[in-house]
Amino acid sequence: MQAQIAHQTAQSHLRQRNRLALVAGLLALSSLVSFGVAATRDREVVLVPIATQRMTVSSAGVTASYLELVTRDTALMLLNRSPQALDYWMSAILQLADPAAHGALKAELVKIVEEQRGSDVAQAFMINSLSVDPKALTSEVSGTLKTFVGAQVIASEERRFTFRWTQRGLSLALAGFAQAPIEQKDRT
């Protein structure tokens, strides 16, 4: 009789253990699914309202309107400079730089700073057109670049610049920029 009671008690403990193992397995599976969903879910950050429309940055990609505004501000900061503010100008641009491109950008900017330091040469850029490609993370800005010595304009030229960007998580960074050739319009 005691053997039968011991057997029933053992069977009861085995059923209880099996139920607990099943619950633990289900909890582990649901935790894995939750972590997987959280890791692959797009993240968004609501940006400070700087435009008439609501803007967000998502880990899924950059919107064209956001890339346009970032390009506009970066182009104006990069292409408007005077010898009195060269140190601030360079540090502001380097703060936007992608860490992988930081060294190359700094080398380019240091050349400009060395050329301009101590001179009276300043420049101003007026944007005429701006186009962006959010999938390729590139943008182009065209406009008039005016060069001044003191208060006198010594040059006024149409220029086009290409910007390359990188996105890491929710961060957009400047990977590089270059002057692009101006397309001549057919006059026939």
Provide key terms for this protein.
31% strand; Nuclear Transport Factor 2, Chain: A; 4 helices; 4-stranded antiparallel beta sheet; 2 domains; two-stranded antiparallel sheet
CATH superfamily caption of the largest domain = VirB8 protein
Judging by the overall fold, what is the CATH architecture of the largest domain? Roll
Strand share of the residues?
Answer: 25-35%
User: Any idea what the shape is?
Assistant: rod-shaped
The strand count comes to 6
Q: Supply Rg.
A: 30 Å
Number of helices: 4
How many distinct folded domains? Answer: 2
State the name of the first-level CATH class of the largest domain.
Alpha Beta
Backbone structural class: alpha+beta
Major sheet characteristics = 4 strands, antiparallel
The level of helicity is 40-55%
Uncertain spans: none
CATH topology grouping of the largest domain: Nuclear Transport Factor 2, Chain: A
